[in-house]
Amino acid sequence: MRAVFGLVLLIGMGLAGFAVYLANNYFAEQEAKLRQVAQRAASAVQTVDIYAPKRDMTYGELITPDDIHIIKYAADFLPEGVFRTEEELFPLGTSTPRVVRRPMETNEPILAVKVTEAGAPRGITALLKPGMAAFPLSDNMTEAFAGELRVSDRIDLYWVGSVGRGPEISRLVKERLEIIAMDEPDNRGRGGGGGVVLEVTQQDFADLQVLRSSGRLTLTPVATSDISTVREAPVDTNLTTILGIKEPERVVEEVREPEPEECFIIRQKGTERERVVIPCSE
Prior knowledge:
Order of helices and strands: HEEEHEHEHEEEHEEHEE
Pfam families: RcpC (PF16976)
Strand content: 15-25%
Organism: Yoonia sediminilitoris
InterPro entries: Pilus_assmbl_Flp-typ_CpaB (IPR017592), RcpC_dom (IPR031571), SAF (IPR013974)
Protein name: Pilus assembly protein CpaB
Helix content: 25-40%
Structural class: alpha+beta
Domain SAF: 48-116
Low-confidence stretches: none
Shape: elongated
Radius of gyration: 43 Å
Number of helices: 6
Distance between the termini: 167 Å
C-alpha cells in the first residue's frame, strides 16, 4: 500500500512539475509577444489625413469634390502646403473650385503651390503668380525638344546676334525660367510639346521682346540638380573665340599737332633786309 502511495505521489509531483514548466513557457512566450507589440507600437509611423486627386490632373483643370479623396500620409514627412480639411481646400464652398497650376498624379498630395486660389479664373492668368508675366515661345524654338519638355521644367535662353557692326555672338541671357503651360499630347501620346509659355518678370518680358526682335532666341533645358547652381562667370562666345583666331593688333598712328602758323614782314634797312614776326590776322 505504501508502495502504491509513493508511486502516486511521484507521479503527482512529476505532473505538477511538468505543469509548472508549461506555465513558465507560456508566460515567457506571452511576455515576448507583449514586448514585440510594444516595439511595433513605438516604431509605427504616425499618419495624418490629407487630400489627394483620385486621377491624374493637368494644368487648367478644375478641382471638384468628385476629383479628390483622403489618403494617409506620414506625419514626419508632411510637405508644406497640404490640405487636411475640405474647408481648407474649398474655403468659399465646394461650388467654388480651384484650378490646377501644375500637373498632379493620382494620390499625389495636393499642395498650395500646385493650385490657384479658390475662385480664380481659368487659363494663363490662373497660372501666373502675382506681378509676373507670360512669355510665349515659338514652336520653332521648342520643336527640337518636342515630347521632352514638361510643365514646371526650367530652361535657359540664349541670344544669338550681333550689335552694330560687331561679330555675331551667342550669350546666355535668361536663366532657369519656368514653363507654366504647353500643349499636352493626346491619349496615344502623339503631339504636344508646342505652345510653351514661360513665367517671367515684367523686366524679363521687356528684355526678351527686344532680344527676339534683334536676333535669335534658343533654349536648353536645365537639369534638376542645376536649378540652384550659381554661375560665377557670364556665358558667351563668338566665332573668333571658338576657332581660336587672334585678331590682328591695331596700329595706332601718332597724331601730330600742326605747328603754329608764323606770320612776318620784311623790313629794308639800307642794304640789309630784316625779318620781323607779327601777329597773324584771323
